[in-house]
Amino acid sequence: MHCIVTGAAGFIGSHLVDMLLANGHSVLGIDDLSTGRHKNLTTAAANPSFQFLEKNIRQLSKDDLPFDSCDWFFHLAGRADLVPSIVNPEDYFQVNVQGTFRALQLARDLCVKRFLYAASSTCYGIPDIYPTPESTPCKPEHPYALTKLMGEEMVMHWHRVYQLPAVSLRLFNVYGPRSRTTGAYGAVFGVFLRQKLAGVPFTVVGDGSQTRDFTFVSDVASAFVATAKSNISGDIMNVGSGHTYAVSRLVELLGGEKTTIPRRPGEPDCTFADTAKIRICVGWQPSVPLEKGVARMLEVIDDWRDAPLWNEQSIAHATADWFKHLGHTS
């Protein structure tokens, strides 16, 4: 298949590119490198079936592409992380909403056979049901979640109105090699790995009993590929590990002391995907348990040596707007 992957130099996008190439497909990777890294595409760049276009998705047109048609279009470009979305919602709206609009229009121009959208489980907010099925009402708690949900709604709308063969995958707590190492305070794995390298305590929110559906990145990439191969269209499906793990268990696996920081408003006590739909409809299932995934992360821990080193004080400063705007005082 001829494939386009937006956000190709990012964390999940680069793993998806590698998997598509390994399966014999040709790939055009698109990324403006605002958060993605050329280093993530080292393996792909050596493959003659890979091309790279450095371009902002919002300015992309069919004239920029080296071909007139495309089989599979994977839209992963977007802004991630909760904290900066509260500080700068306009940027998130422009990239996650307007960028998705441009991707959908380009996909129509290319008459794609399948459009895959990387949605976010944060759309559920604090759900009432665990494991959480796709039928659960969406109650986004912050601008990041809202803009990802707005993108998903456009994808489903383009399917209904323009018959675009599209599927949205709601991703749960993705982790793995190449996850972001710089920039704003974000995912727990990056924070903890840098703290482990520095020999300082892990900053655990609350008592660490909250659980997360930690899903390894290779499982997520395989979910995109399996869904692209299927005949599913116009649907939304969760992608998760099949389990939910306490943050305290993650601390045990990483090994080290811990210190506590205040619980944050708008954060669920649990994330846990009901993956029955994608298992039944696509035949996909995850294969990397947390223990195996953490071991893989520790093998490449030096990749986080230059990442920001967070502590109680710097986290409190970075998340001040979080507490302020979500109606909580620290």
Task: Give an overview in words.
This protein is of the alpha/beta class. It folds into 2 domains: 2-174 and 216-239, Rossmann fold; 175-212 and 243-271 and 287-325, UDP-galactose 4-epimerase, domain 1 (Alpha-Beta Complex). Helices cover 37% and strands 16% of the residues. It is built from 12 helices and 13 strands. The chain has helices at 11-22, 42-45, 83-87, 89-109, 143-162, 188-198, 217-229, 247-254, 276-281, 290-299, 312-318, 320-325, and strands spanning 2-6, 26-31, 50-54, 72-75, 114-120, 166-171, 174-175, 202-205, 211-212, 215-216, 235-239, 245-246, 258-261. The strands form 4 sheets. Strands 3-2-1-4-5-6-11 form a 7-stranded parallel beta sheet, sandwiched between helices. A two-stranded parallel ribbon has the order 7-10. Strands 8-13 form a two-stranded parallel sheet.
